[in-house]
Amino acid sequence: MPVIVKIPAPLRPLTQGQSEVSVENAATVQAAVEDLSRRYPGLRERLLDDKGALRRYVNIFRNDEDIRHGKSLQTALAEGDKLTIVPAIAGG
Amino acid sequence: MIVDALAQAVGNTPMVRLRALERETPGVEIWAKLDWLNPGGSVKDRAGLFIVQDAIERGLVGPGRTRTLIDSTSGNTGIAYAWLGAALGVPVALVMPGNVSEARKQLTRAYGAQQIFSDPLEQSDGAIRLCRTLVAEEPERWFYADQYSNPMNPRAHEVTTAQEIWRDTGGRVTHFVAGIGTGGTIMGTARGLRRHGAVQVIAVEPEEALHGLEGLKHMPSSIVPPIYREEELDRKLSVSTDAGWDMAERLIVDEGLLAGHSAGAAAVGALQVARELAASGRRGVVVTLFPDRADRYLPPAEAP
User: Fold this and answer.
1) Range of B73's domain?
2) Residue B185 above 90 pLDDT?
3) If one looks up domain A3-86 in CATH, what number appears?
4) A 12-71 residues inside an 8 A Cβ radius of B
5) Helical H runs in chain B?
6) Do B120 and A86 touch (CB under 8 A)?
7) I need a surface site. Which of A4, B52, B123, B165 has the fewest CB within 10 A?
């Protein structure tokens, strides 16, 4: 069973409009991001800074837990986990 | 100041000179209008007051009426509606993305507003669409305030914000720089200032679709608000999230101003305009507006 990654509206132009994509065999969030970045060019730069760290304003949840509260990109993933990339709130 | 109703305390916010930034811009003044000093803590009190008052005057909501005011909001407009509704006898329902900050959730709840949460991954546009659906399902139940289309939103700034800036600069303002959320602040203030003279109006927007400048809209990837008229702007500047956040921190440490992220982005734009003027040897009075304070950005306590 793969890990499901939920994609917010502003990133969907990079994922051919898909709001949900799946990743196989990713042991950590880092591995999942790397795998997605290979399949969807441009994604990496949106999520990670020049040093490869999670951008300050990008929030990723593993199931219900903000990965910043744990090991950030090194957070371990198990089969069936859900990752959610949460955008900021715009306008008004 | 003494008021017999808190609504009278909306507007007439102070302008403060940003002297730490001005060190980089000899001959050019930079001023910030501190709209977080409105009673509800943000610039949105201005639009909220005009929208609610207009609806009461038209007999759509208020004492003796049954409709509930509903709108989609990223939070600050919701707080404005919520306290104004409590004060003026108008029930309020708010459609907000589920990841709206905990501070905004708690404040709107405290004032007794009904909260409806939309999918966080769909951002503000998801809240707009959900709100439209609810209104279409039960049109008799709601007054749809629609801040993105309501002419009272820019009108509030044309009549109040712009006139305050003109008065408080003694008519010396040469440039006005502000972020785009609904577009109400920039559109209305531009119109009000141009009644008096040729003021340059510059809008600040996030550089990318995925950004952390909460409250600001990236127009190319958003539902464009009907009140937003790009052709009325003299110029648009793109600001990165990192630049906006760094500037907010600088304003806090160097100026003692607890600037939120959108205020930081507005200041980045104002500083760029002022630097360009100074570099070309021109004088100027650049005014920007700070929408809210950093304490509106306390993170959600749980996953959205």
Assistant:
1) 44-144
2) yes
3) 3.10.20.30
4) 13, 19, 46, 55-59, 61, 63-66
5) 19-22, 44-57, 76-88, 102-110, 123-137, 152-156, 162-168, 184-194, 241-255, 261-279
6) yes
7) A4
